[in-house]
Amino acid sequence: MKKFLYLNMLFVLTVFVSALAEKQPEPISMERDGPRFGFNIYTGDMVKAKFTDRPDGKEYTPFTTIFGWQFEKVLTSKDNNNQSIGVMFQATPLVAGLEQGLLIPVFNFMAGVRTQSGFEMAVGPSIIFNLQTDEPEQAISPSVSIALGYTISSGDFNFPTTLVLTPNLEPDLKHKQEDGTISEHSQKGLRISYVVGFNW
């Protein structure tokens, strides 16, 4: 008798859980890969240390173009009202500085949220590979980026626009002078990036 009762309870529980699962909308997985391009503006002490007053004597403009490709995956619900929020994951390899003869590889990985109306916010690590230095400790510059954006949809196409703020977390730049003395240059500052693109 007890076994029969337990089996009935298990059956009712299974039916109840199945009914709840059917009521919950399954998430939709979408891939929104596409090209990205824009520009960087550098501020603070990093302007002198990296561009206008470099220890190696080279001079560059603290304004660089950006070209790359963004790999994006979005998880959202089937509810398409404007209150729905989707979770997004982005991996974006970029190249900056081509207009000045520079090759600055940048890799961003971000996670965030996007509303059905197109507003988004994300945060994640940003890594710059400095090919213009002979110092191993300066070859890789990690940081954390914060992004705010809005996507305009037209038919099957999406046109994202994003503002990205990235503080420079590198320590002071040390350079050995000809007389053997060591000079230090602060690299503190903020990299402001504006990126646009499209996907479908």
Question: Major sheet: size, sense and barrel closure?
Answer: 8 strands, antiparallel, barrel
Order of SSEs, N→C?
HEEHEEEEEEEEE
Integer-rounded radius of gyration = 24 Å
Helical percentage:
10-25%
Unreliable sequence segments: none
Question: What is the structural class?
Answer: mainly beta
Domain module tally: 1
Keywords:
single chain; 200 residues; mainly beta; eight-stranded antiparallel barrel; 11 strands
Q: What would you note in describing this structure?
A:
With 200 residues, the protein is mainly β. It has one domain (26-197). Helices cover 14% and strands 52% of the residues. It contains 2 helices and 11 strands. The protein has helices spanning 2-23, 46-52; strands at residues 28-31, 34-42, 63-76, 85-96, 104-115, 119-129, 140-154, 157-167, 173-176, 182-185, 190-197. The strands form 2 sheets. The chain has an 8-stranded antiparallel beta barrel. Strands 9-10 form a two-stranded antiparallel ribbon. A hairpin with a 3-residue loop joins strand 5 and strand 6 (119-129). The protein is elongated. It starts with a helix and ends with a strand. The model has no long low-confidence stretch (mean pLDDT 83).
What is the secondary structure topology, with strand pairs?
Elements: H1 2-23, E1 28-31, E2 34-42, H2 46-52, E3 63-76, E4 85-96, E5 104-115, E6 119-129, E7 140-154, E8 157-167, E9 173-176, E10 182-185, E11 190-197
